Amino acid sequence: MRRKTYVAALGLPLAALLTGAGFMVPSAFAATAGSGTDTGTSPSAGDDVVVVDCAHQLQVKPDTISLACGDGNDQLVGLDWSGWNADEATATGREVINTCDPSCADGSWQSYPVTVRLVDSKPFADRPERYFTRVIVDGPNGHHEHKLAE
């Protein structure tokens, strides 16, 4: 199975760009971005369902999912997957989020433990795989849902 390192390929330049623009990138994200560590795998013949990352790459059990593709101010990191099937994928990890108070450039980063569920898989029009369309995050700050990239 080929390993994807999209965070290493895109994360480090993004981190450099954001830092150069006055943004503070969370150390957990910056460390993952530059480490070249496994951030998930690309789908193989046996994989029925994937998650589409911000770079529109198909991922199975990614280590990181961005909930804010435009600015990186909300990331799910260190994801440890306990289940992955066509109906649902479940993981624990941490949400690293910029408070954006008073602004995103001057905000502080917070990190807390979360449970993550990927749900509502749909078929691609032109591929054999299915993809998850929503992520549900539960943690100390409550329950929130996000639409995933398609």
Write the layout of secondary structure elements.
Blueprint: H1 6-20, H2 27-35, E1 49-52, E2 58-59, E3 65-66, E4 74-84, E5 89-98, E6 109-123, E7 130-139, E8 142-147
Parallel strand pairs: 1-7
Antiparallel strand pairs: 1-2, 3-4, 4-5, 5-6, 6-7, 7-8
Helix pairs in contact: 1-2
Judged by helices, strands and strand pairing, the structural class is alpha+beta
Could you give a short account of the major beta sheet? 8 strands, mixed
Percent range for β-strand residues: 35-45%
The span between the termini is 23 Å
Q: What share of the residues lie within helices?
A: 10-25%
Name the shape in a single word. globular
**Radius of gyration over alpha carbons?**
15 Å
Number of E strands: 8
**Average pLDDT taken over every residue:** 77
The total number of structural domains is 1
What's the SSE pattern?
A: HHEEEEEEEE
List low-pLDDT spans.
1-38
- The helix count comes to 2
Signal peptide: 1-30
Protein name: Secreted protein
Keywords: Signal
What does this structure look like?
By secondary structure, the chain is α+β, with helices and mostly antiparallel strands. It has one domain. Helices cover 16% and strands 40% of the residues. The protein contains two helices and eight strands. The protein has helices at 6-20, 27-35, and strands at residues 49-52, 58-59, 65-66, 74-84, 89-98, 109-123, 130-139, 142-147. Strands 1, 2, 3, 4, 5, 6, 7 and 8 form an eight-stranded mixed beta sheet that branches. The protein is globular and about 45 Å long.
